[in-house]
Amino acid sequence: MIAKLLIANRGEIACRIMRTARTMGIATVAVYSDADAKALHVRSADEAVHIGPSPAAESYLVGAKIIAAAKQTGADAVHPGYGFLSENADFAQAVIDAGLIWVGPNPESIRAMGLKDAAKQLMRSAGVPVTPGYDGSDQSVERLTKEAEAIGYPVLIKAVAGGGGKGMRKVDAPADFAAALESCRREAKASFGNDEVLLEKWITSPRHIEVQVFGDAHGNVVHLFERDCSLQRRHQKVIEEAPAPGMDEATREAICAAAVRAAKAVDYKGAGTIEFIADASEGLRADRIFFMEMNTRLQVEHPVTEEITGVDLVEWQLRVASGEPIPLKQEELSINGHAIEARLYAEDPAKGFLPSTGRLEHFDLTYWDGWDTRIDTGAEHGSEVSPHYDPMLAKIICHESGRRVALDQLADHLAETKVWPVKTNLAFLVSLLRDEDVQQGHLDTGLIARKQEALTSIPVVSDRSLSDALNWFVRDSTNFDRKAEPLLGFRMNSPHKREFRLAVDGEVQPFTYDPTPEGQSFEHGFRESLEPEAQFVSIRGHMLKVSLPRYDGTGHASAADGAILAPMPGKVIAVDVAEGDTVAAGQRLMVLEAMKMEHALTAPFDGTVTGLKASVGGQVQVEAVLCVVEPASEA
């Protein structure tokens, strides 16, 4: 058995692996960058080694530094987690060549399934159904354009080395193909070092179904049933559950058998996932489920499989890597109840899910003691959310006897979760879990996009909640007399209703204060003081800051005055305009890259570009003015 394990990762997955290693009596070694020097995963390990600067390309993606850290600490095995180097066959081979145990599949298996085009060809030969499309070697724009027309629009462009929703673009019309291809290739090159793509037919009413498989060095391969990961935005999973809603036994048997054939075709060892796309226009049917790709690693959503099977997949990984056979036979595995996982991200749904960074001054994921909810996280009070890494803060998982109760419990838990001041997708997740189609199991990968406006709407704070906030200001706020000057007609000792103003998330709004007992009752919503001069109202997971407005005449520039601001810290990867250019409303001006995602900035109205300060390769800070669009003069 492994004696000391180095985890070549960070955050939530590093902490989760350490948890199992600790129960097995295995010592752990963490690695960390400058940004993660005080991170939870560093303090949770028995030992920790610094491996470089904050950018992943200079730390977590440098295989030589990882191996050197393992040698330095006497570790005898390396677990890659997910992301970073987890599916890098060359790194896996380097670990093995260094005399260390690689907790993952053989490098040959990673290579066989690492490129989507080659994997599809291999699956065809193994009798696994694949999605219609083009995966040829001719990567010319002309050939790809021709093949897209032959497939028929809409088509999906996918990076052959992609994963995690990166390097994917849906194209609805021929006129949009060239631009989408260019963007996809650029993102694929930046994320995976490979800009080759394949094309697939866009499936009507698509559902994302995947099967957890596990193999060992003794020729055994089993499946641990399916997961449904259809609730996605921009091809990135948000909610995952097991088993898949509406999956009958015949279809389950067919898809799981296909997954086992796929794993055996590459002599697979360890934990892996076979991902399928299902045409669910007539429900889940075995003849309408197609192979997409194989992830040769542990998945982010593995907890839902653990919850319904009672299996610790990390323990299985460590045992199989140590040479042991899979602990259970196929007939010993069964489904127990229903599990649902939500991914808590540091992002702002109201602003197109832009990543949010900063210090977590308040981070409370706890819930009622009597509820059995699992929380996997690498963050805590005081953690810094860095722009250098994926913005996922935690995974919250509920396992219950049935799907509906698991959905409701998870929604209730998230509604009571409080994070400040970093923006999160909490309220969005609550709205999604309580959506009628989601509740009924009517899922597909386009559901979030169709309902995004409703799902991301900001809850309105009622007058009752504002009254409660004002009571706090009257009672406890320091130097209230000075702050009370802007209040309109408010009198401390007056029994009558008065008009005044409050700032809610920075926006000043009029409010009628009712000092009577009836007026002071308030709706369900958690209020607490996180800052000395403010109150916070949490409604369905959305945190709102309520304060007395400041009248100092300052304000940030906005699209209304033509200033184009950086919505987050990031790197400028494209500038499409020059000083003095005439632009039209909606025209792309430049592209920022942050947290592994591209964000296009567009002109707010017709006008002329002035004050251009952005250049390709430049790093910018949040709310930096990148250029100004002077409005076109009216004739």
Write out key terms for the chains shown:
635 residues, alpha+beta, Rossmann fold, Dna Ligase, domain 1, D-amino Acid Aminotransferase, Chain A, domain 1, 5 domains, 8-stranded antiparallel β-sheet, 5-stranded parallel β-sheet, globular
Determine the N-to-C terminus distance: 80 Å
Helix content: 25-40%
Read across the widest sheet, the strand sequence of neighbours is 14-13-10-11-12-15-22-20
Q: How many independent structural domains?
A: 5
Runs with pLDDT <50, length 5+? 478-495, 519-525, 550-560
What is the CATH topology of the largest domain? D-amino Acid Aminotransferase, Chain A, domain 1
- Tally the helices: 18
Protein topology:
Layout: E1 4-7, H1 11-23, E2 27-33, H2 40-44, E3 47-52, H3 63-73, E4 77-79, H4 89-97, E5 101-102, H5 107-114, H6 116-125, E6 133-134, H7 141-151, E7 155-163, E8 166-171, H8 177-192, E9 197-201, E10 206-215, E11 221-233, E12 236-242, H9 249-265, E13 270-279, E14 289-295, H10 302-309, H11 313-321, E15 338-345, E16 347-348, E17 354-355, E18 358-359, E19 362-364, E20 373-377, E21 384-385, E22 392-400, H12 403-415, E23 418-420, H13 426-433, H14 436-440, H15 447-455, H16 463-476, H17 480-484, E24 498-504, E25 507-513, H18 517-520, E26 526-531, E27 534-539, E28 542-547, E29 563-565, E30 570-575, E31 582-583, E32 588-594, E33 597-602, E34 607-610, E35 619-620, E36 625-631
Parallel strand pairs: 1-2, 1-4, 2-3, 4-5
Antiparallel strand pairs: 6-9, 7-8, 7-9, 10-11, 10-13, 11-12, 12-15, 13-14, 15-22, 16-17, 18-21, 19-23, 20-22, 24-25, 24-28, 26-27, 27-28, 29-36, 30-32, 30-35, 31-34, 32-33, 34-36
